[in-house]
Specification:
CATH topology of one domain: Immunoglobulin-like
Strand order of the largest sheet: 2-8-7-4-5
Order of helices and strands: EEEEEEEEEE
Helix content: under 10%
Structural class: mainly beta
CATH architecture of one domain: Sandwich
Number of helices: 0
Oligomer: single chain
Largest sheet: 5 strands, mixed
Shape: rod-shaped
Strand content: 35-45%
Length: 160
Amino acid sequence: MIATDAAGNVSAATAVPTITADSTVPPAPTVTSPSAPVSVNTATDTITGTAAAGALVKVWKDPDKNGVVDAADSVAGSQQLGSTATAWSINVSLAANAANHFVVTATNAAGTQSGATLVPTITQDSIAPAAPVLTDPSGPVITNQHSYNIQGTAEANALV
């Protein structure tokens, strides 16, 4: 590239870097953890997976649970992958005592964003369950057995 002024003087040439058009949509990232819906008793959790090398991986809050990035969504965390790196790990904040929904995208160097990948629901639960209710025995028992079957009820999925 050169410049010429009004008097006809010509500048020294300047090298022009290569410009490459890239409209290819990158592949959607994969999510390896969590691999299924989970419940946690922490304020944050880590989402991990893989994406194309060099991609900018973004985890988006998906409050409308529609599985796509739209105006309702906001970035919960991101990681720029190196030119040979494909693994990513992003720590996200969780809404307290709620089901948290996220999607993940990858953006290539040209700024083209992939489709969204759903993250299994992460439920933040910091409320202790109610105490178990004992239904049998209803009072003291004397038995000649080495074991006795105690019965009762507790919160669903609670370990008693």
